[in-house]
Design brief:
single chain; about 210 residues; alpha/beta; Arc Repressor Mutant, subunit A; 2 domains; elongated
Length: about 210
C-alpha cells in the first residue's frame, strides 16, 4: 500500500517541487496540496494522510500552529517540517508542536524521499545541519562546572521559578546574599539575565 502524503506550502515553486517528488516516487501517493494551513485543516481530517510535508513559515497560521492543530485532528499523522531557518528555537518549537522531522529546503530529492520513508517507519529525520545544531544546544555548557555547590543550588531554585526572597527563606540566608550569589553566577556563566542563566542550567541537565 502506498504511503499517503499531503503538502502544505505557500510558495508555489517549492510546492510544485514537493508534489513532483511525491508523485514520481514509487510507494508514495500525493492526496492533497494546499497553500495555507487553514484550508488544509478543513480537508485533511477526511483524507487522513500518513505524512504531511509542511512549510514552517506559512502565512496567517504558522506551520508550528498548524502542526499542533493537525496532531489534535489526526493523532496518527507524521509531520515533516520544511524551512530555510536553522534557528534552534524554531526547531524546538516545531518538534514540540508535533513535527517528527525537520529538513532545510535545500535538501536534495533523494534526501527528501529518504526522510519521508524514514518518518513513515517511525524515524525522526533531520538534516545534518539541524542535527548538529541540536547537539550544540543540548551539550552542557562547560562554564557550569565553575559554579560552587551553593550557586548551583540557587540556580536550580531559580529554574523552579522561585523569587529571591523565597530562595532566601528556603536556604536561611538573606536576600542580599542571594543577590550576591546570582551576580557571581552571571559573571561565571557570561550571562546578563536570570532567563539566560536558567537556560544554560536546564540544558546542562538534559
Amino acid at each position: 500500500m502506498n504511503i499517503s502524503v499531503a503538502i502544505i506550502e505557500d510558495e508555489q515553486l517549492y510546492r510544485e517541487h514537493l508534489r513532483a517528488i511525491v508523485t514520481s516516487t514509487d510507494g508514495l501517493e500525493c492526496v492533497g496540496v494546499y497553500h495555507n494551513a487553514e484550508y488544509a485543516l478543513e480537508k485533511l481530517p477526511e483524507l487522513q494522510p500518513r505524512i504531511v510535508l509542511m512549510d514552517i513559515g506559512l502565512p496567517s497560521m504558522t506551520g508550528n500552529e498548524c502542526a499542533s492543530a493537525l496532531k489534535k485532528l489526526i493523532p496518527s499523522v507524521h509531520i515533516l517540517m520544511f524551512t530555510v531557518f536553522e534557528d534552534p528555537d524554531r526547531i524546538f518549537e516545531a518538534l514540540q508542536a508535533g513535527a517528527g522531522g525537520y529538513l532545510l529546503k535545500s535538501a536534495t530529492k533523494p534526501r527528501i524521499v529518504e526522510a519521508i520513508f524514514d518518518l513513515a517507519n517511525g524515524g525522526s529525520p533531520l538534516t545534518p545541519q539541524v542535527a548538529r545544531k541540536l547537539v550544540d544546544v543540548f551539550r552542557p555548557d562547560p562554564l557550569l562546572a565553575n559554579l560552587t555547590p551553593r550557586e548551583t543550588e540557587i540556580l536550580g531554585l531559580l529554574a523552579q521559578g522561585l523569587q529571591y526572597r523565597h530562595i532566601a527563606e528556603q536556604l536561611f540566608i538573606s536576600v542580599k546574599t542571594v543577590g550576591r550569589h546570582i551576580f557571581n553566577i552571571y559573571e561565571k556563566l557570561h550571562v546578563n539575565t536570570n532567563v539566560d542563566a536558567v537556560r544554560k542550567y536546564l540544558r546542562g541537565r538534559m
